[in-house]
Specification:
By secondary structure, the protein is of the alpha/beta class. 33% of the residues lie in helices and 16% in strands.
């Protein structure tokens, strides 16, 4: 499946210098997309961002309507904007946006900067995360509309989708598809800031496969993507429609929302697993402990 980025009407693109540094992974292209919402301050914002990005890691455009973008910048609170800038201090705010968020995001996306996942640290439920998750899913839905036959699903899953449940501060998303995308054809997901995940270890769970299980092995195939945004880190699971874990993740999310006893038991398990793996370099064994709980509550 070839996923081509479709530019919405009203988009103007800033000239981009040629990247001086190749990405670390041949599967990831340059051009993580940033959209600045149209208005009197948009051209200056695009100019400032482009000047701060001399290696051309970003594809900065002005857009009347947001498309599939890693970050949408606005000048007043709107449902579409990830970041709202104050025009009274535009140079300073753009510089801080680049230093604190966009610069690290772009370098991590291109494979020029890495971070260690570290142990799982749980935070109280943040009601802003479901809102941000819905915004990301809307962008994926728009970007993939030429490939979606009307049966695909787009869900916020995981602990941040459950009010009252402590969680790691990033969102888990799931797209159910008829055919898995190929590593070389991820344009839409890349524009939205998602790059293919590699896993912390060779046997990291859930990167290319969700099994083992009772169903045929082929039904457990999947693709996993990460969004290395310091302001909104996210994981995207792309699973086959009808596959066991495509259905199970949504069923378990709904169970946690509806059943306080199961939610408390899962919270206790998560807290215990976080303590047991507090000195781990990654989340893998913490994740395995959670998956065992899910299997016991089918």
């Amino acid at each position: 499946m070839v996923l081509g980025v479709r530019h919405p009407p009203g988009v103007s693109r800033a000239p981009r210098p040629h990247p001086r540094n190749p990405p670390a992974s041949p599967d990831v292209r340059f051009g993580m997309r940033v959209e600045v919402l149209s208005g009197p301050h948009a051209p200056e914002t695009v100019r400032l961002l482009t000047r701060l990005d001399p290696t051309g890691l970003l594809d900065v455009v002005t857009a009347a309507r947001p498309g599939p973008a890693a970050l949408v910048v606005g000048f007043a609170p709107t449902p579409d904007a990830d970041v709202v800038l104050d025009p009274a201090d535009l140079p300073g705010q753009v510089a801080r946006l680049w230093a604190d968020r966009l610069g690290p995001f772009a370098r991590r996306f291109a494979g020029l900067e890495t971070t260690s996942p570290g142990p799982a640290v749980l935070h109280d439920h943040d009601p802003a995360l479901p809102v941000a998750a819905a915004r990301l899913l809307d962008r994926l839905r728009v970007g993939l509309r030429d490939h979606d036959d009307g049966t695909w699903t787009y869900d916020h899953i995981g602990s941040t989708a459950v009010p009252g449940l402590r969680a790691k501060p990033f969102v888990d998303l799931q797209v159910g598809v008829g055919t898995l995308p190929t590593p070389a054809a991820d344009d839409v997901l890349a524009a939205a800031g998602f790059r293919p995940a590699e896993g912390a270890r060779p046997d990291s769970p859930g990167v290319h496969h969700d099994g083992p299980g009772l169903a045929p092995d082929s039904t457990y195939r999947k693709r996993l993507y990460v969004r290395p945004d310091p302001g909104l880190p996210a994981i995207l699971h792309v699973r086959l429609l009808g596959s066991p874990w495509w259905a199970e993740t949504v069923r378990f999310r709904d169970l946690l929302r509806a059943d306080p006893a199961v939610r408390r038991a899962y919270q206790d398990l998560k807290e215990e697993a976080a303590r047991a793996h507090a000195h781990d370099a990654d989340y893998d064994d913490y994740t395995r402990a959670k998956s065992a709980f899910v299997r016991r509550h089918r």
